[in-house]
Amino acid sequence: MALERVSVLDGNTFVVSDRRGDIEATPADTTGLFTSDTRFLSRWVLTVNGIRGQVLSVDDVAYFRVQFFMALTTGTVYVDSHMSVVRQRAVGGGFHETLIFANHGKNPFDLAIEIEADSDFADLFEVKDKLEKKGQTYRRVEQGRLVLGYVRETFRRETWIVSSQPAEVTEKGFSYRVTVPAHSLWSTSLDVAAVLGAEGTAPAKYASGAVEPQPVGDTSLADWMANSPKLVSSWESLGPIYRQSLVDLAALRFHTAFASGALPAAGLPWFMAAFGRDSLITSFQSLPFTPELARATLETLAIFQGQVDDPFRDEEPGKILHEVRLGEMTAFEERPHSPYYGSADATPLFLVLLEEYERWSGDLDFVRGLEREARAAIEWIDRYGDRDGDGYVEYQRRNTNTGLENQCWKDSWDSIAFADGTLAPTPRATCEIQGYVYDAKRRTARLAREVWKDPGWARKLEAEAETLKRKFNEDFWIPERQFFALALDGSKRKVDSLTSNIGHLLWSGIADPEKAQSCVRHLMSDELFSGWGIRTMARGEGSYNPIGYHVGTVWPHDTSIIAWGLRCYGYRDEAAQLARAMLEAAELFKNRLPEAFGGYPREATKYPVEYPTACCPQAWATGAPLLFIRSLLGLDSDGRHLIVDPAIPKPIDRLELLDIPGPWGRMDAFGRARLAT
To answer: 311-350: b or e for each residue (b if 16 or more CB lie within 10 Å)?
Structure first.
């Protein structure tokens, strides 16, 4: 049976190993050292006197640092060794590893220490899709350094490994022959650096004894935590959940060369890259807590905004990107991610976040500077997003080989299906995207009037938003089932599955009040509400599967958006019920919500059921507790004042959030329980 995996990360660099600290990657799994979408180390195995250590404990000291404690033993019941081994690993541009050998015995101890090292330089897409490499690997030893390399035409990647202690270095790794005196220690450090390009240079070696790699930007983890609002709660479990969310957001931050701040990567292991939709939603969730993420996200996405009509990348002028990748398959245009624009919702969500950021930050100069990009985004919605002039944003991939079939947030192949389980033909206009467009136009109208001083454009946008709302409530409503269609298909038929998408309509505000009331009944029914959160698809629908990626699982970010939407429509008790249920799930997930988990009924399983390939940490799952806390306290901003309207459920008797940043400086929010949900 495989040992449990241990991950450490810093931005888009991460290491996944077993509980001994060893890496033994197969072509199709995600163990290894990865950075910039390439695996730079696929084998890293420590043996001492021909055996591997027995794991005693693993300490996740910080998101970027871990230590493994082992004993050298041949016993099966009792530890029969006087030699213990500690591996201390810190990640950042590669990793730094210190090996410590402690002789607890009365006699000297001879050690034959071996570190095996290798790399397959797999592109992350090759790992995910089980594809073969097309280039050549090589290895050499130079001046005591082991170099592992890969070349394909002009594409070159190398891994450099050096030791602080003298070692025999071969093309297979490092060997040490040492004698540790009685009651003494011996140690060595190894630096593993990822090198990009033909004439790349490795990062500087970590200083001896360093405990933290170079932090993202100028903000260390300590500063990040100190600058975040402080949470005080009578429910003791909420504090660790909140702290874990902040720590994971810090871990997922990464810099690009294009923005002044760090934006969140989407999630470990598959999505350690810039994602339009994911970064935008995560930034929205975290705005009252860490507004700097929103600024960096908006700045980065504005720089990469579509400029040309490129079917291979699904790029169009004004469109906001979906995903950026830096690996080999992207470099050789075997994947379109340089960047890829196959997302129909990122563009309106960009406008939603821009307006929300202005109200929570008061950063008028920054928002004024993005007027051109906002106008281009509106132009994309009207000219390219609405493919056939019917007033709705549809999507259909133009890159039929490697583009995404579904370009909404439920982007798996089978997510948009009729109630009988048949897939809806493209182009597809999903309901939540229309809501995002409605909200984007309303919000952009406010910015046009108040910030960009263009009242004529503001009136035009408001009129278009109202027309869209009226038309949407007529065209998407299914009278016989009393909820909004999941989508309109290529023939303008209503896709009649009951899904969580209707909850996003509450967030955007596009649903008429009486129709919203009916949607709330469905959302809180046993068909959609599992007892932990809202299922992506309701029980009883033809495609429902409690462990289907988008057809029955529960996604924490999805439920958090729905909870906020419920608050927006005045359904305070229902919002509090969802927040309480999901936060209780977080407690059972050791304070860290995964990307998704099983949609099984709570009464049947008693515990939330893990989804086997869920990303963790994952950005918008990490942001979900923050949006739940905002929902419980009813936090909002009118651009000048902090608005607090609490609705606190048991078991939380008291909830305080201190030092909330905004145009007001720093303010506190407080709420007491009034419900027994």
So the answer is: eebbbbebbbbbbbbbbbbbbeebbbbebbbbbbbbbbbb
